[in-house]
Amino acid sequence: MKAKTLTVLITACAAMPAFAGDLDLSLTNHSARAQVNAMDSRSPINVGAGYTYHTGSRNIFNLDFHAQGRTALGNLPATAGLGVRGLYFNDNGVKGGGIGIGGFTTVNIPQVPGLSVGGAIHYAPNVLSFDAANHIWDFDGRVSYRVIRNGEVYAGYRYVSYEPEHGDNRVLDNGLMAGMKLYF
User: Fold this and answer.
1) Residue by residue, what is the 3-state secondary structure of 129-147?
2) Domain of 82: which CATH number?
3) pTM over 0.85
């Protein structure tokens, strides 16, 4: 099963750069994630799709749609977006999903060219969640360094969880992550 999932992930990632603004690949100790965004940071919209495989037969899919623009936080140049993230998961046969409302930001640090700090947060309340999920949280934060004009490396933290109808919060993915982002 791992070989089949990995083959699908690699094939999908190989085909995506033909229409992508960027391709984001990251790893935690227990998961691998690929995200492709169809627009670059100069576009007024951001559309993307992602897939996370977590060991133990856990799969998380997402579709994103955000309005985005350049702004400043204090005197620091930034790109920010507001919108929705559709999430669907299969956690060992337990399926659920939701429409998370939230956004993202990336803040550039002018004193250190190439360095940026960013993150994203989306929340799907009960009214926007379905199947096994009552609430879904999706968060990540990262520190990035642009190594070349069209590529950066980063380290950060990712957390994705849902609250089932009966029971305590269930974590789908969390941990320190490392990755790279390629711009096309």
Assistant:
1) EEECEEEEEEEEEEEEEEE
2) 2.40.160
3) yes
